[in-house]
Amino acid sequence: MTKPKPAKTQFANESERQFAEVLDFYDIQWEYEARTFPLQVDEEGNVVEAFTPDFYLPGEDIYIELTTIKQSYVTKKHKKIRKFRERYPDVKLKLLNKRDYTSLAAKYGWEPS
To answer: Taking CA atoms, which of 55, 57, 91, 105 is between 20 and 30 Å from 15?
Structure first.
């Protein structure tokens, strides 16, 4: 049995809200921005750079990152994901890019955001 979602999750964008609806439809338990992973710390141990994946699917033990943003931001996000995978090689992360999201949108009849 899945735990109920908060009534008013504040998503960063429409594509995240739509993705959450698909997960709900298939009764897949999810957590939104469940954990922040430090990527770089300074000499005093302060976090200088971090990465917070969009979704965590506890039943699958996998993090999901949606990348449907402007192309100018994609390179920066890919660098963060590369650092994440180097620093946390045992943590599963799936990147859904704009093409993946567009395919989902077509399948479910959404207006791609």
So the answer is: 91
